[in-house]
Amino acid sequence: MRFWLANLVLLPVCARALVTLFGVSSAKAAMGIATWLLAAAIVHDLVVLPLYSGLDRGARAVLSGPAVNYVRIPAGLSLLMLVVFWGTIAGRGEGAYHAVSGLSYEGYALRWLIVSAALFTASGVLYLARRGSARRGSRGR
């Protein structure tokens, strides 16, 4: 209950800070920022949080012990990159990007996949190395 109360108190403060930060002068734009902030908080709390919490519980049920972290961390970083670069990966805004930089968006999705694969590969190699050194350490005793 206190969490919801804190959100209700702090959302207008955050909206005011964003309006000031972006130098918004029209009431319509300020209302748009406040609406976006409220919608983002509601969507996160009611949709996204239960979704990734359920995925984490499922991963912990399948993977035992600390092995879940070797999947959780690269998956989280990969998802974060996808969210941050979604517009670029999807090719939205390519015309404006090309007009300013002379470059193309081509290849962003492939690069995201390569970086994601590298994250999972590095995590898997690290897991196997640590698991192997733990086995060698337990045999020596």
Describe it.
With about 140 residues, the chain is mainly alpha-helical. The protein has six helices and no strands. The chain has helices spanning about 1-20, 25-60, 70-85, 85-90, 95-100, 110-140. Helix 1 crosses helix 2. It is flat and about 70 Å long.
What is the CA-atom radius of gyration, in angstroms? 22 Å
Low-confidence stretches: none
| Helix fraction by DSSP (H/I, runs of at least 4) | over 70%
* Secondary-structure element string: HHHHHH
Could you give a short account of the major beta sheet? none
Overall pLDDT:
85
The number of helical segments is 6
- How big a fraction of the residues is strand? under 5%
What class do helices, strands and sheet pairing give? mainly alpha
The geometry reads as flat
The total beta strand count reads 0
Distance between the termini: 52 Å
Descriptive keywords:
141 residues; mainly alpha; 82% helix; flat
Walk me through the topology:
Blueprint: H1 2-21, H2 27-62, H3 69-84, H4 86-89, H5 94-101, H6 108-139
Could you provide a short overview of the structure?
With 141 residues, this protein is mostly helical.
